[in-house]
Amino acid sequence: MKKLISKIQQEGFTLLELMVAMSIFAVMSLMIFGGLKEVLDVRNATDLYTKRLTELQIAFLHIGRDIRQFNNRGVRDQFGSNLESLKGNEVGQYKIELTRDGYSNYAKINRSSLQRVAYGIDDNKLYRYHWLVLDRAADSEPVKMLLLDNIEAFKLRYLDTGASATTGIDKDWVTYWPPISGTIIPDVIEVTFELDDWGRFTRVFGLPDAI
After folding, report:
1. Where are the beta strands (DSSP E) in the chain?
2. Domain range for 39
3. 20 to 30 A Cα–Cα from 14, which one of 31, 44, 139, 149?
């Protein structure tokens, strides 16, 4: 072995041997790079999938928690007009607006435990809004939080328990609230997100008085 190494050190490699060695090295490098790139691509795709799934779950978590903590307390808007405790619109800035209980107060500030929240779409993004006061002044602005992007549609339906008064049906789905029947609280609210990349997702949430 020592003689062979000594011979290589003395005589070196021929040009052909060097070209063959370089070719083998180049092929092996391409194979390694290709495998590494595939691993990185899979990892990036997994990270994007996980991030998107987390955002979707958080969006449903927020809106579901707000609906389940609904409180039947109306408020006044910035113009002094009365707003229902639950208001659903097919058009407009806020698709749903409601009063909820359980407003955390870790700082022990002298304020209500109720909170007014809303959800709306702006530039294909879902935002959650909340106000620092229940009855707004002219300068009351909501705090805005981004929950989900790349949304094609955000749809809500309300199960009207008093539909029989107007339609003859015991219960009926409506896309706005309050309904003509005058029902104060729906049984459940159906929330649907239609995403550009993943399609449609629907969840149904019950309100406290209906659970």
Report:
1. 75-76, 82-83, 86-88, 96-100, 115-122, 125-130, 143-148, 151-160, 172-174, 188-195, 199-206
2. 14-62
3. 31
